[in-house]
Amino acid sequence: MKSLAFIATIITGALLIFATVDFPDWGDPNSPASLHVSPRYIEKTVKETGVPNMVTSVLADYRGYDTLFETTVIFTAGITAVMLIRRPRK
Amino acid sequence: MIWQLDLILLPLVIICAIAAITVRDLFSATVLLGAFSFLMCMLWAEMGAVDVAFTEAAVGAGVSTAFFIAAVFVTTRRTKD
Amino acid sequence: MITPLENIIIKTLCRLLIPFIQLFGLYVIVHGHGSPGGGFQGGCILAASFVLVVVAFDLPEAKRRFSEKLNNIFCSLGVFIYAWTGWMCLLLGANFLDYGILNKILPVNPVMARYYGMFSIEVGVGITVMAIMVSLFLDLVTGGKHEEALDE
After folding, report:
1. Is B80 domain-assigned?
2. Closest chain A C-alpha to C143 CA, distance in angstroms
């Protein structure tokens, strides 16, 4: 059973490494990721939001819903842990 | 991306990851996982993703290590397998 | 159960370090726009400083400084601040979380209103993450019995 798991891991790892060959180079300006939406944020972030850090502006402003529900997920996880683990005062 | 730094960091990442799953003492495994997180943080900072590196340093190497140590503290330190 | 460490070196060092860690956490939260950082990271650093209080001193001392009730309030206060920043925009006539409209109640232009809207939600995220991490750590380290431990 252990050798089977080892073989499965090796095959999956080999497939993943094989897939990285098709990736664009690191920092390639002609890769699809830096051609489609990135230029808009890079050009307009400071003009539209006044925030120099692009990552924060995307996280908190352009994708605000995402961060709101991310915070809600953390809140729910904490409340669930309290409900499962904590023993109330007798 | 600096290939000399990568050459030092990537083997260390792999060594830490393998050591963390093979070591029998759970406390050592936790510390090795913290070292793995910190090396990944250095890799990300070196590739220019400073925000991700900061999150990894604060969450992966800081708070989650403390959580694992707390969990080892209330359960057992020796693993069965 | 955590036992108090009777070690003068650790206690003195932690007493010296904790204010600086907390100051750094607050800096990371409020300066998340201009430099790397933000609510999540800053909240984790603040929670780490509290973990250091629990490790260096004992649990009742940590509880005396940051009580259970206050922690529970902080858990939901962060999400409350975040959601109400969105609702304020909705009430003022824009879309949900469209902070530009906040210049009707803030004395700034719409671009800087976006800046302060982002600041407010980062503070909300930071408060929630800090309180949840502290609550998780206390539950884990005592096996969920820290309320009883306090009575002894």
Report:
1. no
2. 7
